[in-house]
Amino acid sequence: xxxxxxxxxxxxxxxxxxxxxxxxxxxxxxxxxxxxxxxxxxxxxxxxxxxxxxxxxxxxxxxxxxxxxxxxxxxxxxxxxxxxxxxxxxxxxxxxxxxxxxxxxxxxxxxxxxxxxxxxxxxxxxxxxxxxxxxxxxxxxxxxxxxxxxxxxxxxxxxxxxxxxxxxxxxxxxxxxxxxxxxxxxxxxxxxxxxxxxxxxxxxxxxxxxxxxxxxxxxxxx
Amino acid sequence: xxxxxxxxxxxxxxxxxxxxxxxxxxxxxxxxxxxxxxxxxxxxxxxxxxxxxxxxxxxxxxxxxxxxxxxxxxxxxxxxxxxxxxxxxxxxxxxxxxxxxxxxxxxxxxxxxxxxxxxxxxxxxxxxxxxxxxxxxxxxxxxxxxxxxxxxxxxxxxxxxxxxxxxxxxxxxxxxxxxxxxxxxxxxxxxxxxxxxxxxxxxxxxxxxxxxxxxxxxxxxx
Lengths: 222, 222
Known about the structure:
Two copies of one chain form a homodimer.
Chain A: H1 4-9, H2 15-33, E1 38-39, H3 41-48, H4 52-59, E2 72-73, H5 74-85, E3 91-96, H6 100-107, E4 116-123, E5 132-133, E6 136-140, H7 144-151, E7 155-158, H8 165-174, E8 179-182, E9 195-198, H9 201-212, H10 214-221
Parallel strand pairs in A: 3-4, 3-7, 4-6, 7-8, 8-9
Antiparallel strand pairs in A: 1-2, 5-6
Helix pairs in contact in A: 2-5, 3-4
């Protein structure tokens, strides 16, 4: 993996900033497709409902300057955002747990557009071991450590059942993986130098349910 | 849909609290499976790496009290959390965009354990319209408004390509849907009374990439 470009560019950003940057990227990519040449932070603000001062601040982390009264050059902004977010680089990953979600990720070639290349899956089920999913081979979980010694992949995507989450994480870490993308609702414990990103889709469901009933509760309380 | 129970229990929670509650739930579910009867906030704190004062505060939103020196009754905590989060209730939803992610969600019966029941998919591709995915029928997107008039579903799951995100959202809202679970990286604009939950998996990838290179940057800066 060639990480040079990333390491040179990289500073540790506040998480809210990292969460907003992909919004800007998807918007300016769209403008770029429409052959728009310049965009102002005011325009981005209006489109994405983020304060323009916040946008200017977020974009100040990048090697790009807006021009007075013209704004940012769209094409440069796309490239800078992609580079900065690491989407233009190549990151290998394995999927641990090839159930429906794991399989979907292995088949989702959209992830490649964001720099993620899934190179292997691992599972305990004998009916999937030895098979290929979306062109990606599935191995027995017992082979993970040995496989990893050969391939040295950094990112493990955890899509195991929740009760196996910690065990799978421990195995990935013991095998030398340094970043875990945790799709289970389990709060994984790991050494501090291991990167963990939690994509807890069930928490988002709870947010939807909670917010949906806002009106009835407000009425009740009001 | 019977929402009575939810409406009665529901208060609008801070998002960080709603994000932590499913962690507690998955942990106490595990204890319940191991026939553990009581758990203290100190014990949850140690296991999940959340401060015990924070846990006590989060759980104070629920109709449950811990007992001094014994803690919370595990079985009651499981039920209260499930009820409170809406996971014990039944929420119908449709998937708009039956690509690899949409299909995975339609096949993921795990979601049913969290109260979500996907009853239909919608797409523009003639090869999937009229098919069933995971037992769920797929219709033409043009039929959404008419279908919705008959079925009155509140939740739309958006798994369309990013460039169609706003259009799909507009259509869902115009059809009377009130909650959008947005899996695209696009920042959707909607009226204030529409609930939007963004599960932007690409933002999480950016966070992983950014944090992974922490060491090299720190070395450079140090």
